């Protein structure tokens, strides 16, 4: 009773619990590792539903729906303050937003040409590169070689290969952007309070991608069912996973978070199989295992 009186989780007007406190209490009751896994599944489910939209809309239009939905939802809860920002703050925020737009556009173009598991595995080379570059351990050369072996196994060497070079190229661009996103996210976190930096970047990203998305999507973007699915993709791919990851990071070491996130390519392959019927060959599964193992190794905390 004392705890409730101190925290005051109830709305004084209605006597009912405040939604924010209820959600926070529910999240706190879930182990942080489970929150990360839920975030991973949310992102990949969002990607799966987005890929199903490719039958009605081009990837660039789907990206616009996703980013616009995410920007609207995040902007409704977090309004970034623009007054008093120095030109360097603006530069970081705009660069963050442009990177976010290019990353998502490249990834969705890759997703339209590759199975989900393969696209995510190749894109994952971006954060893997950041982790290795920030380390001075010799063993990290092993993880680089293992990741390289995974890429070689994924490459379409034969005439009957089901993977396209264009898809691999787009996924690699997305990976480079993901690496830049990690660095810019850290910089934005130092210049913008709370989650306002990400919200500002999402709004910039929506503005950047709008001309391409609206031009390619045309009047089809106004179809209610497509707008509804786009809203769902924005929730699953941006708002929900970011909220879960933020809660998890408050309660767990960053290297443990990185280890769990390394499972993302495997989860993407599983969602692709179950939701989209994407069956991978043994060689492709071996490539994904190589990249996941490399990511796990690079994020493993060295013994002192």
UniProtKB/TrEMBL annotation:
Enumerate the UniProt keywords alphabetically.
Cell membrane, Membrane, Transmembrane, Transmembrane helix
Q: Does the keyword Acetylation apply?
A: no
Q: Which InterPro entries match?
A: AA-Vitamin_Transporters, EamA_dom, EmrE-like
Give the membrane topology.
Multi-pass membrane protein
A Pfam family (short name) is: EamA
Which ranges does the record mark as transmembrane? 56-78, 90-108, 114-134, 141-158, 164-184, 196-214, 226-244, 256-276, 282-299
Which family does this protein fall into?
Belongs to the EamA transporter family.
Query: What is this protein's record name?
Result: Inner membrane transporter RhtA
What organism, scientifically named, is this protein from? Answer: Nonomuraea polychroma
């Amino acid at each position: 009773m004392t705890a409730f009186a101190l925290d005051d989780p109830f709305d004084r007007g209605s006597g009912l619990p405040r939604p924010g406190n209820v959600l926070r209490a529910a999240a706190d009751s879930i182990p942080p590792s489970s929150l990360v896994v839920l975030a991973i599944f949310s992102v990949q489910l969002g990607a799966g539903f987005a890929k199903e939209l490719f039958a009605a809309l081009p990837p660039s239009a789907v990206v616009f729906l996703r980013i616009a939905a995410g920007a609207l939802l995040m902007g409704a809860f977090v309004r970034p303050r623009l007054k008093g920002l120095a030109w360097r703050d603006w530069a970081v925020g705009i660069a963050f937003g442009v990177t976010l737009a290019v990353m998502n556009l490249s990834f969705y173009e890759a997703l339209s040409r590759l199975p989900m598991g393969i696209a995510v595995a190749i894109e994952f080379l971006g954060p893997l590169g950041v982790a290795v570059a920030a380390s001075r351990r010799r063993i990290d050369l092993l993880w680089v070689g293992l990741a390289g072996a995974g890429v070689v196994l994924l490459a379409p060497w034969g005439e009957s290969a089901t993977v396209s070079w264009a898809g691999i190229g787009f996924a690699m661009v997305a990976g480079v952007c993901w690496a830049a996103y990690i660095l810019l996210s850290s910089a934005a976190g130092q210049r913008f309070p709370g989650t306002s930096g990400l919200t500002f970047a999402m709004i910039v990203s929506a503005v950047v991608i709008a001309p391409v998305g609206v031009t390619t999507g045309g009047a089809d973007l106004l179809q209610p069912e497509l707008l509804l699915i786009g809203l769902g993709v924005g929730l699953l791919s941006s708002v929900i996973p970011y909220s879960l990851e933020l809660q998890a990071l408050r309660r767990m070491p960053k290297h443990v978070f990185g280890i769990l996130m390394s499972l993302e390519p495997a989860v993407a392959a599983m969602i692709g199989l179950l939701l989209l019927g994407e069956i991978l060959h043994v060689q492709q599964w071996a490539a994904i295992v190589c990249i996941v193992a490399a990511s796990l190794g690079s994020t493993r905390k060295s013994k002192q």
